[in-house]
Amino acid sequence: MSDFHPNQDLDLSFLYEIADGSDEFIADSIGLFLEQTPQLLSTISNAIYAQDWATAASASHKLKPNLGFFGMPISQATIQEVELACKAGGENPTEIIEKFTQVKNTVEANLIELQKIKTEKEANL
Q: DSSP states of the chain as a string?
């Protein structure tokens, strides 16, 4: 299986490098991401629609390094823009919603791919 999925903004080369061949480390790391990420996406979504900019900014800030760790630089940069726009008070909610939706769609597609990789790695244990 290829570690890089350019159409999905997913490059797991860093994860594979630090895992040093450990399928257990990869599976556990992906498992943690699979647990945390849907909740963070939900928190951000709910906060944006409630115009709770502080909560949206905080949850975006928490999601950002995870996206970087899992090789999603495009989504990481976009969620940074969402975070900054929310910190600025949500002056353009339509733009925030559009950018967040882009990240959410990409990340959700990657969650499916990551679940497949996790299952494969667990089968090797």
A: --SEEGGGTEE-HHHHHHHTT-HHHHHHHHHHHHHHHHHHHHHHHHHHHTT-HHHHHHHHHHHHHHHHHTT-HHHHHHHHHHHHHHHTT-S-HHHHHHHHHHHHHHHHHHHHHHHHHHHHHHHT-
